[in-house]
Amino acid sequence: MKKKVLFLCTHNSARSQMAEGLLRARYGDRYESFSAGTEPGKLNPYVVRAMAEIGIDISGHWSKSLNEFLRDEFDYVVTVCDSAKEGCPYFPGGKKLLHESFPDPSGFTGTDEEIMAGVRTVRDQIQQWITETFGVGKQ
Predict the structure, then answer these.
(1) CATH for 22
(2) Residue 92: what pLDDT?
(3) Which of 4, 31, 64, 66 suits a disulfide with 74, CB 3.0-4.6 Å?
(4) Has 26 been annotated as catalytic?
(5) Domain count along the chain
(6) 48-74: per-residue pLDDT in tens?
(7) Catalytic residue among 51, 78, 81, 122
């Protein structure tokens, strides 16, 4: 039986979406992944592009509220930003809470390529953390 993981951030527009897509693509045989936000916004198009570059299509994702998941149980609830950790220090259906903070791509400025470079960096940081935390022989 697959373990269920919920990734939370503020807007569910970038970091939690990348984490959901990465976990599903890399370890979907062992984990079901979901994501939500404390204040859902709109999917970040730079994030969609950065994920497509590594062969993961999240273009069909949308921002969801954590309220949609309050009646569900998860083996892991992971906050990927400090704001979500502060806004949701306890999740009723979460068996184990994890936290790792990543920079917010919505704050990146500059040229298109400079923004993409920043998003790629965050994507790669999340990917490394996912591998270290959920990879073979983990959890």
Answers:
(1) 3.40.50.2300
(2) 77
(3) 4
(4) no
(5) 1
(6) 999 999 999 999 999 999 999 989 999
(7) 81
